[in-house]
């Protein structure tokens, strides 16, 4: 009698993910309504695609320009309040998109701070934030700080010896830029630009709320509208396939662009840069830091204003939404960490035990592809599948943690995978000689080194899920309300005071979780 | 002659007070425990650190008011001497002109110097394609090509293995016999330079504790402290 050998959990997870995605698409394409031909929707598709690309390209360009200028200015200067600016940048990096939407309304909306200021100055021209202005402001607000932080990290990794050489050779500011700053920028910018473009191309909440009409849709919003308004599953399938193809090829490109050896030296140079004395640069940096602060600070502060209305919104609706959001975030983080753990241990087994780096590379790449899968398309497909077996009303409670969890797998994976590799390299042979395998190996060999990164990944996955306004737009209603959905409702009803308080709660929780995650991932280094 | 007279530098947790004389044309090896102030001494001579008091002259010229780029000094570090995006020729060329607009004569001079440090034909390579020893040879070539009379070497060969380290020190010794340069070199293992250095200096706790011929330093009353300093790291 032969015993059936179970496959590795990682292979099961990989198979399940691929099956889920493929099953979703098959369900969509074979749905009874019949898929429209690609040709019949092509003029509409062309418009959506053109807008998606145009707004993403503009957003990326502006985010890079502001982010890089800010990073250079921060690298050159030390001043009172520099720490505050850095903290502001970090906070903005974890800000959920729907909270950023609120901030744009609060500052640039019809009765926002800017309108009030202009009215006070006697200028009563009305202007609309909808369309390009609102979308670009929100995207730059969310992405320029990210660009600035990554670039600044790169710039502070320039070895102190290079700065001393620059002094010894008497480099001019232009030569400092050419030989010290530019090589860093050139190495980092392609990858950062690609990532920012991908994020803006896939943008949902911002474009939905600030687009201001069906003519200004990204593919993601178009998929949502086809689902929610038209119930046109065939169109959903086509749009989703195109979205998947574009995002997947971009992800592959990024994966290669980022797959380079990590920087060898991590000692931060605290040296005073020789170009800090240049007069022109002093003026330039002052202007950039001033403009950057003027742009970012009001948007960030508008959320803090929610404190004023905090008491007023403390009702049962809010508490229920809060509890629902926490519950979904916990479930999503559990899904994300379990899947990431299974995939990472399969990747490790392939790389170090079975010595097949190609298959290991496939496991490494799979989490990143989840960034490319359009959540609405996946949701719609799974919804159709589930509908055949169970009650669609409860589908949301299952799908929300699942989809949010899948979206967080790449982030959890990045925390977990390196530590698994390290423990195998150190103790793998001892474990093998003792016959430790499976869960016992995980508990005895890996757990001590794994618990912190796992907790860090869990907290980050929770932060992402807690603030997410994605497919909740489909399932949200009287039965199912999360905090981001509550915020969206309040915004739609123009109740900005209540919206600001809800936004503040979301931001605080997301920020705290991200902070816990950061602490955990750095401790023990 | 290099004359350092009570140059004092203060940090919250460290005070240095250097006094030292080195004859022009000499090769001076600086030894001592890590954290004792060897590197700070070189950084001060190069102009990266400014003493609060004291005097620092070279051949009668006061160095203290001068910016690092204006001093008659070139320096080689233990690591990160080369810019990875520039070729070997360009990295050496920075010692002549930071703008890298090199004349034909300068290009020829660079080639000759590369030849002299044993890197003939390496001009078009980038640092990433070379070994650690080769990269330090490039840095040496740059120090030589700049024509500055005072060369500071800060543990230049400590990350190389012992055989290679000895070769490099012999290269430094042969270089200085061909040109009028004064060399100060911090080293980790005193034996490496005992027979080539004219002068050996023991630095500890931010002070020059002793300065003499290598044989007297290594054979004298400091021998135990030196042995302790070497085995320390």
UniProtKB/TrEMBL annotation, chain A:
SUPFAM superfamilies: MetI-like
Pfam families: BPD_transp_1
Transmembrane portions of the chain: 12-31, 51-74, 86-109, 129-148, 189-210, 236-259, 280-301, 321-344, 365-386, 392-415, 456-487, 499-518
Membrane topology reported for the UniProt record: Multi-pass membrane protein
Subcellular compartments: Cell inner membrane; Cell membrane
One of the GO BP terms on file: transmembrane transport
Keyword set, alphabetical order: Cell inner membrane, Cell membrane, Membrane, Transmembrane, Transmembrane helix, Transport
A cellular component annotation (GO) from this entry: plasma membrane
InterPro entries registered for this protein in UniProt: MetI-like, MetI-like_sf
Domain ABC transmembrane type-1: 49-254, 322-517
Family assignment from sequence similarity: Belongs to the binding-protein-dependent transport system permease family.
Domain of life: Bacteria
Protein's name in the database: Thiamine transport system permease protein
UniProtKB/TrEMBL annotation, chain B:
Domain ABC transporter: 1-230
Gene3D superfamilies: P-loop containing nucleotide triphosphate hydrolases
GO molecular function list: ATP binding; ATP hydrolysis activity
Cross-referenced Pfam families: ABC_tran
UniProt xrefs under InterPro entries: AAA+_ATPase (IPR003593), ABC_SmlMolc_Importer (IPR050093), ABC_transporter-like_ATP-bd (IPR003439), ABC_transporter-like_CS (IPR017871), P-loop_NTPase (IPR027417)
Protein keywords: ATP-binding, Cell inner membrane, Cell membrane, Membrane, Nucleotide-binding, Translocase, Transport
Family: Belongs to the ABC transporter superfamily.
Protein name per Swiss-Prot or TrEMBL: Thiamine transport system ATP-binding protein
Organism listed in the record: Microvirga flocculans
């Amino acid at each position: 009698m032969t015993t059936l050998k179970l496959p590795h959990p990682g292979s099961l997870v990989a198979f399940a993910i691929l099956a889920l995605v493929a099953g979703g698409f098959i369900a969509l394409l074979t749905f009874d309504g019949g898929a429209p031909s690609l040709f019949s929707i092509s003029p509409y598709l062309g418009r959506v695609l053109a807008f998606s690309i145009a707004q993403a390209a503009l957003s990326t360009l502006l985010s890079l320009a502001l982010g890089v200028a800010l990073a250079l200015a921060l690298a050159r200067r030390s001043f009172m309040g520099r720490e505050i600016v850095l903290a502001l940048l970090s906070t903005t990096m974890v800000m959920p998109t729907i909270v950023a939407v609120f901030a744009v309304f609060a500052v640039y909306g019809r009765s926002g701070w800017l309108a009030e200021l202009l009215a006070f100055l006697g200028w009563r021209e009305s202007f609309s934030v909808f369309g390009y202005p609102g979308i670009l402001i929100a995207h730059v607000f969310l992405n320029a700080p990210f660009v600035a932080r990554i670039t600044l990290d790169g710039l502070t990794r320039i070895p102190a010896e290079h700065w001393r050489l620059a002094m010894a050779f008497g480099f001019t500011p232009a030569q400092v830029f050419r030989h010290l700053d530019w090589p860093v920028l050139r190495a980092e910018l392609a990858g950062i630009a690609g990532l920012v473009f991908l994020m803006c191309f896939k943008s949902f909440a911002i474009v939905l709320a600030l687009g201001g009409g069906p003519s200004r849709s990204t593919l993601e919003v178009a998929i949502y509208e086809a689902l929610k308004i038209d119930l046109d599953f065939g169109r959903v399938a086509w749009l989703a396939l195109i979205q998947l193809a574009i995002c997947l090829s971009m992800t592959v490109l990024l994966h290669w662009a980022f797959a380079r050896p990590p920087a060898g030296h991590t000692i931060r140079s605290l040296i005073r840069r020789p170009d800090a004395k240049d007069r022109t640069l002093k003026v330039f940096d002052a202007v950039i830091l001033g403009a950057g602060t003027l742009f970012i600070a009001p948007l960030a502060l508008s959320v803090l204003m929610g404190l004023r209305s905090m008491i007023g919104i403390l009702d049962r609706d809010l508490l229920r939404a809060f509890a629902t959001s926490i519950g979904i975030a916990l479930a999503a983080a559990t899904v994300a960490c379990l899947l990431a753990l299974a995939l990472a241990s399969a990747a490790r087994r392939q790389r170090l035990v079975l010595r097949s780096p190609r298959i290991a590379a496939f496991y490494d790449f799979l989490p990143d592809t989840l960034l490319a899968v359009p959540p609405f398309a996946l949701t719609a497909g799974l919804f159709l599948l589930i509908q055949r077996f169970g009650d669609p009303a409860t589908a949301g409670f299952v799908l929300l943690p699942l989809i949010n969890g899948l979206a967080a797998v790449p982030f959890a994976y990045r925390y977990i995978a390196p530590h698994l590799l390290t423990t195998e390299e150190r103790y793998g042979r001892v474990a093998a000689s003792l016959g430790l395998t499976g869960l016992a190996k995980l508990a005895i060999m890996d757990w001590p080194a794994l618990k912190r990164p796992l907790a860090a990944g869990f907290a980050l996955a929770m932060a992402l899920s807690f603030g997410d306004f994605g497919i909740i737009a489909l399932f949200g209603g009287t039965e199912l309300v999360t905090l981001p959905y509550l915020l969206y409702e309040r915004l739609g009803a123009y109740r900005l005071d209540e919206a600001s308080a809800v936004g503040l709660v979301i931001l605080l929780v997301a920020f705290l979780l991200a902070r816990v995650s950061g602490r955990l991932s750095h401790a023990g280094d | 002659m290099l004359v350092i007279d009570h140059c004092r530098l203060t940090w919250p947790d460290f005070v240095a007070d250097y006094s030292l004389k080195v004859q022009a044309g000499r090769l001076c090896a600086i030894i001592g425990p890590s954290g004792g102030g060897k590197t700070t001494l070189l950084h001060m001579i190069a102009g990266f650190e400014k003493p609060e008091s004291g005097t620092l002259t070279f051949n009668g010229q006061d160095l203290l008011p001068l910016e690092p780029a204006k001093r008659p000094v070139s320096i080689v570090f233990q690591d990160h001497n080369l810019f990875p995006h520039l070729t070997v020729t360009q990295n050496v060329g920075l010692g002549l002109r930071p703008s890298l607009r090199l004349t034909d004569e300068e290009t020829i001079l660079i080639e000759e110097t590369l030849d002299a440090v044993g890197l003939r034909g390496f001009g078009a390579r980038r640092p990433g394609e070379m070994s650690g020893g080769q990269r330090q040879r490039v840095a040496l070539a740059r120090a030589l090509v700049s024509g500055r009379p005072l060369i500071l070497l800060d543990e230049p060969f400590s990350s190389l293995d012992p055989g290679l380290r000895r070769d490099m020190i012999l290269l430094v010794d042969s270089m200085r016999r061909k040109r009028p340069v004064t060399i100060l070199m911090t080293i980790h293992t005193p034996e490496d330079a005992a027979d080539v250095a004219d002068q050996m200096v023991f630095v500890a706790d931010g002070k020059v504790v002793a300065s003499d011929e290598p044989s007297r330093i290594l054979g004298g009353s400091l021998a135990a402290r030196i042995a302790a300093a070497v085995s320390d790291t």
